[in-house]
Amino acid sequence: MEEKPNQATELLELSSGKAEHVYYWHCGYYTSRFLLGLRDQTTILGVRCSACGRVYVPPREVCGRCFKTMNEWVDLGTEGTIYAFTVVKLPYVDPNTGLPIKVPRTDIYVQFDGADTRLMHWLDEGDETKIKVGARVKAVFKKERRGTIHDIEYFTQV
Question: Residue 6: inside a domain, yes or no?
């Protein structure tokens, strides 16, 4: 599963969608590969440091501990545990759509099996009495995926 950054690969470009502030952002190799994993394989990809073994998700080029370039890709699957969560009850404007978010909404940090870092997303549960740190969760993917973090529609408890 190893691929060098200088090899031919699809580099993604994101846009602001319906939001008022139009932008185009070139994702680069590591983020593009991560987002392509979501879009094409419906899986979470991380990258492992060959020096210390630390696994990063989302992936990054250089290990934060060893400062070594990382090229060993790891398929982390779609399940993990809730590391931390907060239930948002005050609506705010979603920068991706320009519309207010529906509340309550639960933001979570997911610790994937085999990863040393966490990914922030949201859970499909707004009642905090039903949510526990350490609970198992699984990514639910959209049917139509575009290569963005929003290809994961939400996480659900398993």
Answer: no
Q: Using CA atoms, how far apart are residues 142 and 134, in angstroms rounded to an integer?
A: 25
**pTM surpassing 0.90?**
no
C-alpha triplet 141, 120, 61: angle, nearest 5°: 95
The model's pLDDT over 44-70, given as tens digits with 9 standing for 90+, comes to 999 999 999 999 999 999 999 999 999
Decide if 110 is inside a domain. Answer: yes
Considering the domain boundaries, does residue 117 fall inside one?
yes
Please confirm whether the linkage preceding 58 is cis (ω < 30° from 0).
yes
Q: Looking at the 3D structure of the chain, how many domains does it have?
A: 1
Which residue has tokens 């995926």? 145
Q: How far apart are CA 23 and CA 95, in angstroms?
A: 11
Beta-bridge mates of residue 62: 69
Is 73 part of any domain? yes
